Amino acid sequence: MEAFSIEAIKVYFDLYFTFLKIGFFSFGGGLAMVPLFVVEFQKNGWMEPEQFYNVLSLAQMTPGAIAVNSATFVGNEAGMAVGGRLGALIGGLFATAGLATPSVICIVALSELLRKMKQNQWKQAFFFGIKPVTIALIFFAGWKIAESTFFEESYTEVHYGSIILFLIVAALLKVFDKKIHPIALIACSAIIGIVIF
Amino acid sequence: MFTFGGGYAMVPLLEKELIDKKKWLTNDELLEIMSIAQMTPGTIAINAATFVGYREKGFLGGIMTTIGVMAPSYLVITLIYHLFNTSFEHPIAQKAFLGARACIVALIGHSVWKMFQGSVKDKFSFGIFLGACILLFVFHIHPILLIVLGAVTGILLLVTMPSKIKKLLK
């Protein structure tokens, strides 16, 4: 079977180790990985940059983390080229696993370290400084999503429907807070989007 | 499954599942986990999931939560790849995503507000938050640099005003 030929297996491991490398060298989450993705994919002949930017917009729209989505897609594409549909499934799996490996290694090591220095005041000061920054970063991420939702690319057009929907959801959260599940809200909003927008 | 727009969009869901339902974490602990997740190599969502799983149930727990957070991405993207190939610009899908994103903005805003109330209680934290916002929104500083600056500020505060800061640490 072509999906298990030597050539195909070589591509699967190339995918695994490429994403392993990208995972280890990217700090700051999925979008920070984009430049590395572009270079590696072109080098390996898996995908041209323009094609990858399309994948990226797909990855941003679909559920799940951007980097995982991109890895799965590129793994599918590269696997498809050497091993057909089965090859695509395996390629996606290897790429995704490669991306997750650095997280598991680094996080396990780091949690052991943090456990040992639980009462250390330098560690506490470190987090005292970082926590407000994290809140600011999440705030900024929210603003970025808001920008791409409420406005057209060049700010020429305002999408009032989505702003009104945003205000309604915000009001519901303010009133009911813990009684409604975020997933239910997202699902309802998606349906409202299909019906009204 | 239901996180659109990258790792930070996962915060409202983590809040609901881990704080409100399972009671594994407090708001402040989740903030600590997000802080760790964003400065460790790898994607934020996977890092956060691995951390929570490892802390609660050991190595196997870490592996399980990692698989759990990645499985939906793998399934959805693979499905899209095989069904639609690259074209996913169907108008109905676009409308659904637009609606979902409007909702996510509200959810993230709500989470930010709760984290802010829970963890920014003194003038030093507020100052760091305000400085970080200005550097991000006005100067578009790189997030990693911002995180390093935050850590340095925290440690410098402890060095320069030990008595004041020690009272605020926990």
TrEMBL record, chain A:
This is Chromate transporter. It comes from the Bacteria. Its main location: membrane. It is a multi-pass membrane protein. Keywords: Cell membrane, Membrane, Transmembrane, Transmembrane helix. InterPro entries: CHR_Transporter (IPR052518), Chromate_transpt (IPR003370). One of its GO terms (molecular function) is chromate transmembrane transporter activity. GO terms for cellular component: plasma membrane. Belongs to the chromate ion transporter (CHR) (TC 2.A.51) family. It is found in: Cell membrane. The chain crosses the membrane at residues 15-39, 51-74, 86-113, 125-146, 158-176.
